[in-house]
Fold this sequence. Notes:
The chain is of the alpha/beta class. It has helices spanning 2-34, 62-76, 97-103, 135-144, 147-155, 195-203, 216-221, 233-239, 266-270, 274-308, 319-337, 341-372; strands at 47-53, 81-86, 108-111, 160-167, 174-176, 190-192, 207-208, 227-228, 247-250, 259-265, 313-316. The radius of gyration is 31 Å and the shape is globular.
Amino acid sequence: MKRRDFLRKAGLGAAAAAVATAGVVGCTKKEEDKKPKAAAVVTKKTYEWRMVTTWPPKLPVLQDGCERLAKRIEELSDGRIKIKVFAAGELVPALESFQAASDGTVEMGSGASYYWAGKEPATQWFAAVPFGMNAQGMSAWFYGGDGLKLWEETYAPFNLIPRPGGSTGVQMGGWFNKKIETIDDFKGLKMRIPGLGGKVLAKAGGTVVLLPGGEIFTSLERGVIDATEWVGPLHDLRMGFYEAAKYYYYPGWHEPGTYLEYFFNKKAYESLPKDLQNIIDAACTETEHWVLAQFEALNGQALQTLINEKKVQLLQFPDKVLDDLRKLSDEVVAEEAAKTPMATKVNNSFKAFQKVVGTWGTISEKAYYDIIQPKFPLKG
């Protein structure tokens, strides 16, 4: 009897335990069903790009801006795009960056669009037009007019997508080893000067020599060229041009608001997810504003150093010389605009927009500067 009682009790206990266990398991499963499912882990694709520039290594603002852009794109993309930046000559020669990106040898590059005039004359308008718009006007044309749209249209046949890369602001007129007192003083002058400004110099009787930044000082020092323009006081001081030329002229009639550029291989850019394209565009715009701010902040300091410490002779082009240069400039721009339908289209847009912003600028910026100018006399 005891054995039967034991087996009976054991059987009941086992059944109860099974029920209890089933209850616990059932309860747990129901609770689990109510919990949100964990998202599947998705590995996001990463991209490793290369960027080639026309600038010498470590060149303030210009090459620094390219390095900054690459860093910001990597930060904003959370590491999904990593860009290795190569200065001029490190991967391709300075003036071959456009072609390298066009061919897809690299994914992106940086330069100034007037370097590519031989490929399409219209490119020059997106960098600088003699006696054209300043940095504010250019920016307004790109973002408030159809400037950027036309820039993209101009670069499309080369499989490139352009983005504004910031402005140098009004540049200096250049370094000379003789005084410029009349337009005839340009005759026979060998000068490093790119873009439409170079064509104006040629029409005045000068000889244009197109050199990348890293070759300018040596050429000026050895007499390969008689004069050069580069950018402005910040870079001119760093490049040491005051040791190779006597006279420092202003204003930069040939480059009143030179815009730099970033350009992307079309296939590489369009292969990116939309969010990464937006990140690139945003980083370009951020760097664009940073570039102009740096030039405006640092050029003034460098100018004081050139005048007060390096004893540079600062001279203004005579009014008659500027008048003559403007007439020649009008001729050159008309000639270049007639070369291709794209150049004609871009020039028409540029001229129309300049007329609009110029009228406003006369009663705003110019009027204001005319008031405050006597408070900031120049000594050179």
